């Protein structure tokens, strides 16, 4: 009879749809499954898919399949006609979305399942349901994997707790997930997905082994099985050909390893007191790795004793071709809690405590070594940090690192339930990860106990899936703390680096290089894999780890600027920006003092105030200022998130660590890592506060703006053995910045004009060597209409006067910063040239410094006339004293020649003489070039520029080591704002005009050709040099004013006058309280509408130090400590004086107050003459700008008149009082 008819007769009274469904079942089994049911071995190449088994077997198998399907259905009165059988080849080729299939689900059950999955994992979507059926045979695949096979192909099958009884049996899968191939992650076995088997499959053809297992009989080899104790004794007495069967409990399961092309794994059997290692390297037994679980009782038959080379234990049990695995797994799965009740390490979960007690902050500040703790843990994956790096988060609070094991075949997804045994628990190994971390070694086992119900998001672009970091870890074998820091840095750099600069693999390598540089570690040598898996006591790279809470923290440029912006205004108190006499300032003085302020933060919390509690780290490309950059005078550090102005200085070993302005163009375009830097935030505030009491009212703030910048010192080292000058990174403890050149090193010196087939290096060019002698300042100039920069005709320009060292030389490729050649110096004399920089070429301003040699290169040309300057035409008979000019184009490049070894005389060329502050005060030149330390900065104007700054007028006070100071006035209305004008920095001021004030003091002013260069970066907390101690007699005879500020110790002789006054904050007139019912206050000026006042005080006294006398002026907040009054007494004095408004006390003359009976006047007269005021003092004073000449006085004695000269006392202003 027809087998199809026999099959259909078994299912009578079926509808037409069910009959068609049954026919499809029979046809599918005949085509795809019949050949797989005859035996456990896979088909050979000469076997046919059909015809191997008899027709009767196909009919029986079809009936069995339908019956098993009906048993798994939620209803039994009908067939699941909505489901269809799907071949493996169709599943792999047609199913491109992750899905789930469960035959026993009703619609409500599926909805509840999806709702529960999405609630437990917020932000995730449950797997969609498909009505598909899978039938096949479970076979062993390559590398120990399980595969579901039918006549059309095979697919990898992941099982939760597989049984050896399933192998080589036809099965029906009632509940399964399918995860397709992810194109982002390349699979080692090709672009194929995999099936996740949920629960147990349904066996269609029970074999004899299953009957034996169910019946409780023992197979061959089980009768002679021995325990672990007896088998351990056999290891010491090895007998050739002896086979042994061992029963025991699984103590540990090691991961699959591939060494020299051989795949193997180990597990241990234990009975509580003894442990026995078992090695499985037979390719037909590697699938046991998924069947063996920690805590199970198993029996392994036909084991032999062999020698394991490379392990000091030597003897080990190894499986043979006849070995079999028998475990206690049945169709009803034993709960995990029952399985692990006898484990040596208890199984911990998220409900148990897995953290250590936090250490005190004082203890956490130092690096220390700690030992890890070996535990077992069970939880759910809640976050995939980085698949490629093997980093996950379990239960939302416990980190998991799998990088010290080979990569797992099935990558974990969010929602997976995992069970970890012999895993290392570490507490705070890296501040960038959760405090509690679990790390697996070669002895740890990871078992998936529940497959995720959600599909999970694809790996992000910043999480490399090719495993670059784990491969570096395998090669270098560094500690877990270092590895975690490198992984976090790699993830951060992937977001922030400039697009196109580095590929993802390069980012990982860069992160690793940074980690090695910071942690000063080069690895621990090769890992002993056999000792790590088998030795007792256990030892591995995770046994000890370092804890460093002060490790560097990476921040992007945009994150740094945003943090500075928030901290700049949120943490500032306007009253803190004022000097001690702030409450007595008038309206104009108050708003002028608030117009500019700055805040500096250190990158290291141990050296000063910082944004974070850990040292900061910056990585970016060092660039010249762009056209859109706000600060044109400085370099900028750029990454993919933004750019920040960079005030950089250089140091070299030749200069004994002294700082100098940046001149080496080799840094331009380099990817640099800045370890130590200073964050500067300049605040510009436009306000109209009436008085000090109104500072808490923001309505008086008209506009506020801030400008962030970074100040850093770069360390250069010149390698004499190299054939070129290159920028390298210092490796010593004084390192403040490390840099890695992203460009390859240059080829050996060549002067041929032949082209090279290497990208940009093959472009022909011409060059000329120059030495910069003078640089003018950069300003906005009207050089013609048609410019798009700052309106019509306004372009950023500056000029440089330079000496031409040699002739124009042609090159086949850009020579860059190679040492000078002989033909570049073949010139009898030196010509002068003025280089004009306009527009895009003005970006070279920060790196062109006087006294330095540069190679000017023009690419894509062989015309030497392009670099020859133009002479100015003149009339016959007229001598011209002008230099030739050369317009620098935006595409030309400058290369610094740091070691011109062939040009020693030119290296010692004359440069403009740099004076000190004392020399400027004594000289008579109109234009000066001098250097000094900024001790004070004051804003003089509140005009607002287009960029939002209120800095058009600035007064700087510069001083030198002698203590003498000089005031410099800057008009910045026609030049970009120069950063770095901060107290503590040393500035070089070139081409400034020296002028004399009407009072006779020397000061300097800014000219359109003036240039400002930051020579060195200082500390704003101690900016003024030590004040010298002065004697009054010596100071009075100092006619040249060699010392302007000095310290005096003397005794107060008497008061010349004391003036106390309530003044109007707007006009400065006397402010009084009117006697009426309301006690209103008013200004004495009838036209002044002000309603606010300030209290001002002045005093003049005579002080004697034993060598002479001086008149000292004291004002503001220094009057109260001078009088020796407490705060409450000073406040009471101010209240009493409000009625009269002012009081002038002259202890040695008549008071200006008409009321001679005034109690306040008498009190002050007595107090100023008391011993409490006339006492020894130590004062820091400044001499007046110009001391008055001697007075010619007439004296009469009887009938005679005498004329004599009286030397006026030294006039001083008190700056500080102690």
From TrEMBL:
Residues 717-758 are annotated as: Disordered. Residues 718-733 have a biased composition (Basic and acidic residues). It comes from the Eukaryota. Pfam families: CTC1. The keyword Nucleus applies. InterPro entries: CTC1, CTC1-like. It is found in: Chromosome, Telomere; Nucleus. GO terms for molecular function: single-stranded DNA binding; telomeric DNA binding. One of its GO terms (cellular component) is CST complex. Signal peptide: none annotated. Keywords: Chromosome, DNA-binding, Nucleus, Telomere. One of its GO terms (biological process) is positive regulation of DNA replication. Belongs to the CTC1 family. This is CST complex subunit CTC1. It comes from Parambassis ranga.
């Amino acid at each position: 009879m027809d087998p199809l008819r026999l099959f259909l007769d078994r299912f009578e009274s079926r509808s037409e749809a069910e009959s068609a469904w049954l026919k499809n079942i029979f046809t599918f089994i005949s085509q795809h499954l019949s050949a797989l049911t005859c035996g456990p071995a896979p088909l050979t190449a000469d076997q046919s898919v059909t015809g191997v088994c008899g027709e009767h077997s196909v009919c029986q198998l079809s009936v069995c399949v339908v019956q098993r399907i009906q048993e798994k259905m939620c209803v039994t009165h009908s067939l699941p006609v909505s489901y269809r059988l799907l071949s493996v080849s169709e599943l792999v080729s047609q199913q491109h979305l992750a899905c789930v299939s469960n035959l026993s689900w009703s619609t409500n059950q599926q909805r509840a399942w999806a709702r529960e999955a999405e609630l437990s994992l917020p932000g995730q979507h449950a797997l969609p349901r498909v009505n598909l059926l899978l039938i096949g045979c479970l076979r062993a695949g390559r590398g120990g994997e399980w595969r579901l096979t039918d006549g059309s192909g095979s697919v990898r099958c992941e099982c939760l707790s597989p049984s050896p009884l399933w192998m080589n049996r036809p099965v029906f899968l009632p509940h399964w997930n399918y995860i397709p191939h992810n194109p982002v992650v390349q699979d080692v076995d090709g672009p194929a997905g995999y099936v996740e088997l949920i629960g147990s499959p349904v066996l269609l053809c029970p074999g004899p082994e299953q009957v034996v297992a169910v019946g409780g009989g023992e197979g061959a080899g089980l009768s002679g099985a021995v325990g672990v104790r007896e088998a351990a004794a056999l290891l010491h007495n090895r007998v050739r050909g002896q086979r042994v069967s061992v029963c025991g409990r699984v103590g540990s399961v090691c991961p699959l390893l591939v060494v020299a092309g051989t795949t193997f794994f180990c597990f241990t059997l234990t009975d509580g007191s003894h442990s026995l290692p078992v090695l499985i390297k037979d390719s037909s037994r590697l699938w046991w790795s998924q069947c063996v679980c920690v805590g199970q009782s198993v029996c392994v038959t036909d084991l032999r004793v062999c020698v394991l080379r490379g392990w000091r234990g030597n003897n080990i049990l190894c499986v043979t071709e006849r070995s079999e695995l028998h475990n206690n797994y049945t169709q009803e799965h034993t709960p995990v809690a029952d399985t692990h009740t006898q484990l040596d390490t208890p199984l911990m979960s998220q409900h148990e405590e897995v953290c250590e007690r936090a250490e005190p902050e004082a203890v956490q500040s130092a690096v220390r070594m700690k030992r890890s703790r070996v535990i077992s843990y069970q939880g759910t994956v809640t976050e995939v940090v980085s698949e490629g790096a093997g980093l996950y988060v379990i239960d939302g609070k416990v980190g998991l690192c799998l990088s010290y094991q080979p990569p797992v075949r099935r990558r974990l997804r969010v929602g997976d339930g995992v069970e970890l045994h012999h895993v290392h628990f570490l507490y705070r190994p890296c501040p960038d990860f959760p405090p509690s971390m679990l790390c697996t070694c070669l002895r740890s086992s990871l078992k998936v106990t529940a497959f995720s119900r959600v599909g999970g998001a694809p790996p992000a672009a910043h999480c490399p899936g090719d495993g670059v970091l784990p491969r570096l870890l395998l090669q270098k074998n560094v500690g877990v703390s270092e590895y975690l820091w490198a992984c976090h840095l790699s993830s951060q750099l992937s977001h922030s680096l400039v697009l196109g600069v580095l590929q993802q693999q390069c980012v990982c390598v860069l992160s690793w290089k940074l980690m090695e540089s910071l942690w000063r570690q080069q690895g621990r040598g090769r890992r002993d894999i056999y000792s790590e898996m088998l030795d007792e006591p256990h030892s591995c790279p995770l046994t000890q780890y370092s804890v460093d809470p002060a490790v560097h923290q990476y921040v992007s440029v945009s994150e740094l600027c945003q943090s500075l912006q928030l901290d700049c205004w949120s943490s500032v108190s306007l009253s803190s920006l004022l000097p001690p006499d702030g409450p007595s300032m008038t309206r104009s003085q108050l708003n002028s003092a608030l117009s500019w302020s700055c805040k500096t933060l250190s990158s290291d919390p141990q050296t000063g105030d910082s944004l974070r509690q850990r040292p900061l780290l910056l990585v970016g490309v060092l660039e010249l200022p762009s056209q859109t950059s706000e600060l044109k005078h400085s370099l900028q550090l750029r990454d993919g998130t933004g750019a920040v102005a960079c005030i950089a200085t250089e140091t070299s070993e030749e200069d004994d660590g002294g700082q100098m302005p940046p001149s080496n163009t080799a840094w331009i375009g380099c990817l640099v890592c800045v370890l130590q830097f200073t964050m500067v935030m300049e605040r510009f505030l436009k306000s109209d506060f009436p008085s000090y009491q109104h500072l808490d009212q923001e309505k008086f703030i008209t506009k506020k703006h801030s400008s962030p910048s970074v100040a850093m010192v770069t360390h250069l080292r010149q390698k004499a053995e190299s054939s070129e000058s290159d920028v390298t990174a210092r490796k010593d403890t004084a390192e403040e910045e490390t840099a890695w050149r992203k460009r390859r090193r240059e080829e050996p010196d060549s002067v041929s004009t032949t082209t090279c087939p290497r990208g940009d290096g093959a472009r022909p060019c011409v060059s000329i060597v120059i030495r910069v002698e003078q640089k003018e300042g950069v300003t906005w100039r009207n050089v013609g209409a048609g410019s798009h920069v700052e309106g019509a005709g306004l372009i950023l320009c500056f000029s440089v006067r330079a000496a031409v060292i040699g002739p124009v030389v042609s090159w086949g490729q850009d020579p860059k910063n190679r040492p000078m050649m002989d033909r570049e110096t073949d010139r009898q004399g030196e010509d002068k040239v003025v280089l004009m920089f306009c527009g895009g070429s003005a970006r070279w301003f920060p790196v062109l410094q006087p006294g330095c040699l540069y190679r000017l290169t023009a690419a894509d040309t062989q015309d030497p006339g392009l670099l020859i300057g133009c002479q100015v035409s003149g009339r016959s008979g007229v001598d011209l004293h002008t230099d030739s000019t050369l317009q620098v184009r935006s595409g030309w490049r400058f290369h610094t020649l740091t070691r011109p070894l062939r040009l020693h005389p030119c290296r010692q060329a004359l440069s403009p003489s740099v004076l000190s502050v004392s020399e400027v005060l004594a000289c008579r030149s109109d234009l000066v070039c001098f250097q000094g330390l900024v001790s004070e900065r004051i804003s003089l104007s509140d005009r607002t520029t287009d960029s939002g700054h209120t800095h058009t007028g600035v007064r700087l006070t510069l001083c030198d080591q002698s203590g003498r100071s000089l005031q410099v006035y800057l008009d910045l209305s026609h030049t970009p704002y120069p950063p770095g004008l901060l107290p503590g920095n040393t500035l070089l001021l070139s081409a400034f005009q020296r002028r004399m004030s009407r009072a006779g003091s020397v000061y300097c002013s800014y000219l359109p050709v003036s240039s400002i260069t930051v020579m060195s970066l200082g500390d704003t907390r101690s900016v003024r040099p030590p004040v010298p101690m002065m004697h009054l007699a010596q100071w009075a005879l100092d006619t040249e004013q060699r010392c302007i500020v000095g310290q005096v110790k003397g005794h107060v002789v008497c008061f010349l006058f004391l003036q106390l006054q309530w003044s109007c904050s707007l006009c400065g007139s006397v402010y009084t309280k009117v006697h009426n019912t309301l006690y209103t206050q008013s200004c004495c000026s009838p036209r002044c509408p002000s309603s606010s006042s300030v209290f001002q005080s002045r005093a003049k006294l005579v002080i004697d130090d034993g060598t002479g006398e001086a008149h000292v002026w004291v004002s503001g907040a220094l009057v109260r400590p001078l009088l020796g009054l407490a705060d409450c007494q000073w406040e009471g004095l101010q209240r009493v004086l409000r009625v009269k408004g002012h009081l002038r006390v002259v202890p040695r003359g008549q008071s200006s107050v008409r009321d001679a009976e005034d109690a306040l006047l008498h009190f002050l007269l007595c107090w100023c003459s008391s011993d409490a005021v006339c006492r020894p003092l130590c004062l820091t004073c400044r001499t007046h700008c110009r001391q008055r000449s001697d007075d010619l006085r007439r004296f009469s004695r009887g009938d005679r008149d005498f004329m004599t000269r009286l030397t006026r006392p030294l006039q001083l202003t008190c700056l500080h009082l102690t």
